[in-house]
Specification:
With 578 residues, this protein is of the alpha+beta class. The chain has helices at residues 3-26, 34-40, 323-327, 343-360, 363-377, 379-394, 396-405, 410-423, 433-451, 482-497, 504-509, 513-521, 526-547, 557-573, and strands at residues 56-57, 68-72, 76-81, 86-96, 102-105, 113-117, 128-132, 137-144, 149-155, 167-175, 182-184, 187-194, 207-212, 215-220, 227-228, 235-237, 243-246, 250-256, 260-266, 272-285, 288-299, 302-304, 309-320, 471-475, 478-481. The longest helix has 24 residues, at 3-26.
């Protein structure tokens, strides 16, 4: 391998480490600067002041103090607040968070889920609220100064609703009790906020997603930050206080953390025309300040005739990122899983892992068994590749002679090398085929484990949570994660016993692979390192099995073809059996 190739490899490895440094510096939870906090902080509950925009009023002689009431089913508790006219918080009873407490969505209370407003980040307040636990209803009502009456009805699925346990319906009714037409302006329905729930949750999973035309668009909390070219610091753009996009027929809008989401879906997509999102300072985790994200869906305005009323309906999903539950929402909401280009692989792996878990009752065991099944299916390919690599290894003496003979003529050396491969029927790329097949599987696991909730709080020996790094201690502030280190060690072991092909320079190049995979897996879900370690160990067993087989005999294709022709000729001359 020439000097340019080595420079390219060195730059690639340096780029990986630079990326990890960049992620740790710019994507880690950090305190917003004063100007950013001012721009992204949630606006207090206010009302538009223009005459054409309804304003909340209170009945004469009454005082509406903020109070909270809750409605619950088997899966979640929904806490409503009349001060904001929406869902203040959703407590998920089936999921544990920090300190063994229940996971709470919108716990930052940046803005209510299902809040109604006329400007991004603002919601109407001062509602009267009544709840009916028997029906699972929370009803809000308000009279505006212009005469417009607004009623909001939230309906919570009661009992054990297995189809949509986290889906709430919201009906917003506008009524004109007057004798003249009223113009209802464009209005927003808020998603509430999402923020990291665990100190190791990556901020890139705190996102604002929205669906339109069968596709999904998203940003994460770092979209709002000022950006510059890494290391050299050339500015790219300044702070962004607001994300605002307009598209026809918006199907849904969502805020998501790594394993949970809140989705607003209009019953009539033709009524939705734009989306917005802002960033806010969320509650700290273990003393570390973090950012959250909030957003909303804007519906079209309309005119109400005298005495008329009109209702706009929405569905709210506030719960875990469970693929079967998301698919029951009816549109493309399952895209919040964000599986990426190998989505079909991720979905198959998730389905298979859950199926094995149903039998084994343990996700670590499911990952191990699934890996063994995949490796067993790939055994013929791996076995053939190993044989080809052993054949190439047998050509090493001839290759050494050729390199010495044509050391001053690289072009001639390449020509003679390929000629040698053709003569002996050796495919120099056959050893890469198993790796090429396994790369989509690796990235399929990578994407699936990053958002699928199934591994949360699943343990394996010293690993307390397969969805988090298996950190056992810190050394000078650096986390010590055992599984990724063991994974890199098994990769080195596998390379040592793999038949050597190519020149010494090319062989050394492959020793960068453990470093690359270590960088990918070190601070990621430990379930990914468990998968790759298992497949490495299985590959090592395969290699030892293949190494104990007799060495392949190297013969030129011309000799083989001549022998086959002679045998065919003998068979043709053989007299027929009576």
């Amino acid at each position: 391998m020439d000097r340019k190739s080595w420079i390219a490899i060195a730059l690639s490895v340096a780029g990986l480490f630079a990326w990890q440094w960049y992620v740790s510096k710019y994507y880690k939870p950090q305190l917003a600067k004063a100007t950013a906090a001012t721009a992204a902080a949630p606006t207090p509950v206010t009302t538009p002041a223009v005459d054409s925009t309804p304003e909340p009023t209170q009945p004469a002689g009454t005082s509406l103090s903020a109070r909270a009431e809750s409605l619950s089913n088997a899966n979640a508790e929904f806490i409503f607040n009349n001060g904001t006219g929406g869902i203040e918080q959703v407590v998920l009873r089936m999921h544990k968070g920090e300190n063994a407490s229940h996971v709470s969505l919108n716990r930052s209370r940046s803005m209510p889920i299902g809040g109604l407003g006329f400007n991004p980040g603002e919601v109407l307040g001062g509602f009267e609220m009544t709840t009916d636990p028997a029906k699972g209803e929370a009803v809000f009502s308000s009279k505006q100064s212009g005469g417009l009456e607004i009623a909001k009805r939230f309906t919570v699925p009661m009992g054990e609703n297995k189809d949509k346990p986290y889906a709430i319906t919201l009906d917003v009714t506008f009524k004109n009790p007057g004798t003249a037409p009223l113009q209802v302006p464009e209005f927003f329905i808020g998603t509430g906020g999402a923020a990291p729930l665990h100190v190791n949750d990556l901020p890139m999973y705190t996102r604002f997603d929205w669906g339109h035309g069968g596709s999904m668009t998203n940003i994460d909390v770092n979209w709002f930050s000022a950006s510059s070219v890494p290391i050299i610091g050339i500015p790219i753009h300044g702070l962004r206080p607001l994300y605002d996009e307009t598209k026809p027929d918006i199907q849904w809008v969502a805020v998501t953390s790594q394993y949970f989401c809140t989705i607003i879906t209009p019953k009539d997509a033709s009524q939705a025309q734009s989306v917005w999102s802002k960033r806010f300072d969320a509650p700290s985790l273990n003393g570390k300040p973090v950012f959250g994200i909030q957003g909303g869906l804007k519906a079209k305005g309309f005119t109400l005739a005298a005495g008329a009323s009109e209702t706009r309906s929405f569905e709210i999903y506030a719960g875990p990122k469970e693929l079967p539950l998301l698919r029951k929402l009816g549109a493309t909401q399952d895209k919040v899983m964000n599986f990426g280009m190998f989505g079909f692989v991720s979905e198959f792996l998730l389905w298979a892992m859950n199926g094995l878990h149903g039998v084994l009752g343990n996700y670590a065991a499911s990952i191990i068994i699934l890996t063994l099944l995949i490796k067993s299916a790939l055994w013929p390919v791996q076995n053939k590749a190993t044989k080809e690599m052993r054949k190439m290894s047998s050509l090493s003496p001839k290759m050494t002679e050729m390199r010495e003979k044509y050391k001053d003529n690289p072009q001639k050396l390449n020509e003679e090398t390929m000629k040698l491969y053709r003569e002996y029927g050796v495919n120099p790329f056959s050893g890469c085929l198993p790796m090429l097949i396994q790369i989509p599987i690796f990235f399929g696991f990578y994407a699936m484990l990053g958002t699928a909730i199934e591994l949360r709080n699943s343990s394996f020996f010293w690993v307390t949570d397969l969805s988090q790094p298996d950190t056992i201690t810190h050394l000078l502030g650096f986390p010590i994660n055992i599984l990724p280190i063991f994974m890199a060690g098994t990769m080195v072991w596998q390379m040592i016993i793999t038949p050597k092909t190519g020149d010494a320079m090319q062989q050394r190049m492959f020793y960068f692979m453990p470093i690359i995979f270590l960088v990918f897996c070190y601070n990621y879900a430990s379930g990914l390192a468990l998968y790759w370690t298992t497949q490495n160990l299985f590959s090592i067993v395969q290699l030892y099995f293949t190494r104990n087989q007799p060495l392949p005999t190297l013969e030129k294709k011309s000799i083989i073809a001549k022998r086959e022709a002679q045998q065919a000729k003998k068979k043709s001359k053989k007299p027929p059996t009576p």
